[in-house]
## 1
Amino acid sequence: MAGATFAFEAIDLSGVPTKGEIEADSKGQVAETLRQRGLVVLDVSEKSAPVNVEDILRRYKGVPMRDLAVFSRQFATLVASGMPMLRALSTLEAQTEDPEISEAVDSVRRDVEAGTSLAQAMERKPRVFDRLYRAMVRSGEQSGRLEEALDRTATQIEKMDTLRREVKSALMYPALVFLAAIGAMIGIVVFVVPVFIGIFEELAEENPSEKAELPAMTQVTVGVSHAFTDYWFIVFPAIAVLVYAFFRYRGTEHGKVVIDRLKLRIPFKIGDVVQKVALARWSRTFAGSVSAGVPILQAIQITGETSGNVVVEDAMQEVYESVKRGGSIAAPIARHDIFPPMVSNMVAVGEETGQLEEMLSKVADFYEAEVDAKVKALTSLVEPLLICFIGGVVGFIVISMYLPIFSIYEHIR
């Protein structure tokens, strides 16, 4: 994998200046290369890479979970085959399709070559290898079962990716329909309603003695139309600012707490799906970290931080304090509404029998199946609700536009 591009200034032994560019991994490597050429280095500076929109979008989207799972599975196979670590990393770097993973593997290989452990090298690339991933790798290194840890990690990522894809694919169609409907309604308000407004104004000019106020529904529609057509330079920036403010607020600690709690209370069974997705992710992550041999306190902490829901994270903080004092995992879980009684009972059984990993895996399997069924039911519920909403808004606009015409017709009769 090519390094960065550096610009250099140097002079040869006779004092003749020279400039140029060279690709290398560091400034030190550039200086060493130039010294080998018999040049005296005056200055070395890294050239900034041109802005690549595709690269920015790729980094914004993050690392594809499927590619990371494939990488982990291949890594486990190479380690199990007895291939030396540096050669295995070089092989993975060459055959990994995702550029960000390939870049991360290159960095890990160089750090391992310098003498650091695999988990420590991965800490420099947290965007690719999150805390859970690193903890499982560290546990595998310490126990001498790295291939098993990587294999479990791959299974964990594949399960999480499947769950996320199910939810996204089920909600994609309703979301597209909703956005298309919103666009169509804005088009009606901006282009169709003004035509009716022009007709109303012409009729009012032709019959000034019979001037009357427009119906309330018509006034609402006309007001919205005027806002979008006459004050678009205020309306659209205001909408953009509100969206930006919402995402900024969601990024704050208080915003995460408020929004995560609200998501669990969304009606029409949506909150129920959110809860089951959080439970499936929590149990799968917890089971994976326990099975990989991650110390229980660290596993609890990591599971809370990677749960994706602040409510679950708060509950796991209580679990952490309980276990730290010598208490159980099940007791604090039972005190939180987000965990149904079945979860706390199965965790309690797992603790008592020493089969916590198996019980958590069963909980994960159960809730992943529940999410699949609930998402399908939610999709069948959302579609008629969308139709009713869109029909209601369009009907409101149509009726509000025709009410004055009916009134004029009655007046003419």
## 2
Amino acid sequence: MADVARVESLTKRYGDLLAVDDVSFSVREGEVFGILGPNGAGKTTTLECIEGLVTPTAGAISVLGMDAARDADAVKRRIGVQLQASAYFDYLTLTEILDLFARIYDCAAASADLLRSVGLVDSAGATMEKLSGGQRQRFTIAAALVNDPDLVFLDEPTAGLDPQARRSLWDLVSAMAQDGRTVIMTTHYIEEAESLCDRVAIMDRGRIVALDTPRNLVRSMSDPHRITLALDGVCGADGLRALRSVTDVTAGDDGAFVLRSSDPTETVPALTRWLAESGFALTRLEIDTDTLEDAFLALTGRELRE
């Protein structure tokens, strides 16, 4: 697939603050590309540089085959942008706002169809103050689609929303991808990136520390599997540590053991043989695989900041 956006050695400074530090990545046509990280990681600044809203300190950016700096006006006509915070005209209805945006773009957007696509057709005659937080966010996406963009940017689209409204926004993002649009989104919700994104760039302190599919980011961990077991007697951990593919064993307060394994298909048969030889019987056995959150913590060494 062709690249619709390419970022090379992007750097952005604000005085002594290095907000984005030598970031490079590309986004493929038709994918949902996520930038995951805590607040202050540099996600929004990276998006604003690609969108042409902020001038980079250094680096090169191409969008839809055009130079983002030299062809900024042409780029902006073909992208849709949903910002973290948006302000609209207080006394215009949703339909009137979309019609106004269509005139600015000199295009023939169908306001009713846009509102229907985000579940707001019944609110077409309402003003922004009449909308709930989730409805406002859905309207910002409708506004971002007025010019029928090839590439859509979503900056923290579900921040501050309740779970139901968040899931509704997820459905909209999935629908955009199904319509063939390319989506670049930022988020600090791990489950959001895991559910929506084809690939995820994990960003922290201005740098991208890993980039891959959510599944591959988890698989890249040296021991991504946890085997929790309890026995019908007291034993030490040495025998468990000797099992194939086990990299670590910890004992819990409840007497259970947690084994870290790089390959449970090797560890479980070895465990079965060890049990038969030692005479112990299992009273509990659970096998879990790490999540994208575990991968994030392993890569950054700290929890997400809300």
